[in-house]
Amino acid sequence: xxxxxxxxxxxxxxxxxxxxxxxxxxxxxxxxxxxxxxxxxxxxxxxxxxxxxxxxxxxxxxxxxxxxxxxxxxxxxxxxxxxxxxxxxxxxxxxxxxxxxxxxxxxxxxxxxxxxxxxxxxxxxxxxxxxxxxxxxxxxxxxxxxxxxxxxxxxxxxxxxxxxxxxxxxxxxxxxxxxxxxxxxxxxxxxxxxxxxxxxxxxxxxxxxxxxxxxxxxxxxxxxxxxxxxxxxxxxxxxxxxxxxxxxxxxxxxxxxxxxxxxxxxxxxxxxxxxxxxxxxxxxxxxxxxxxxxxxxxxxxxxxxxxxxxxxxxxxxxxxxxxxxxxxxxxxxxxxx
Length: 337
Fold this sequence. Notes:
Blueprint: H1 5-12, H2 16-24, H3 31-44, H4 50-57, E1 62-67, H5 73-87, E2 92-97, H6 102-112, E3 118-121, H7 128-134, E4 141-144, E5 155-158, H8 160-173, E6 179-182, H9 189-205, E7 212-214, H10 220-231, E8 241-244, H11 247-259, E9 269-271, E10 288-290, H12 293-309, E11 318-321, E12 324-326
């Protein structure tokens, strides 16, 4: 005879409602109780009928995750954080990338309707008007690193502006004055905030120093292209420091500059942003701004679960996670990492 949810509840010494909440990832149940119930579920080999449970509870036990891309260490770390937090609650993920424009983002959201209990969204195409036009009113959502957060929807972001400001301050303190910036995509909220921090710090801390901003797209290839352009410049006009808006571009530039014969940091200092795992292993090790990437994913998932479990209880607030400067050999100094 098949094991039922009543059998699980009796074995665990809890109510049927508690078993249901544990299986659906509700925030109203404690972690210890959830672990106990899930252990009983596993021991008894109870297999809930997903379709029937969805019809009964209106929950799918699945979280939708929409990211700009799935390639690279940044997004791997992000998904790692989200997935770990989801698994601890017995939840599954449905992940999609948004390589295209706003129309593609809208298609991805529509494809997840009815299939997920809530959405985590990081997209440069998301603003209040877009969400109003494309998001079902009753679908919980938490935004990550987008400009639309904190008004109608809860959001969690990194302090990109002050992180970039701190990096320029570090370079100025190291004696660098011709500090170039390799920017991210023009429509990207994080890239805009990092560029804003670079410009403000350069104006405040190095009055009279000219801005040198190069266009990039967060890819290693765009870093290589700018590295090649710098190699072709006259040495007297070449920047003495390059601050890239993310680590992948910085690493692309690093490889090209070294292949072209430049010594780092003797001929040019180099810095990035994010502190992806590989940043400490390149040579020279990359000075960067450490972003709590996995923690950002964990907090976003926890906020969404709370919103799903208790609709209306989570205010549309904007949380900001701090960013930490990590000095390594690529700018001539090192701090413990």
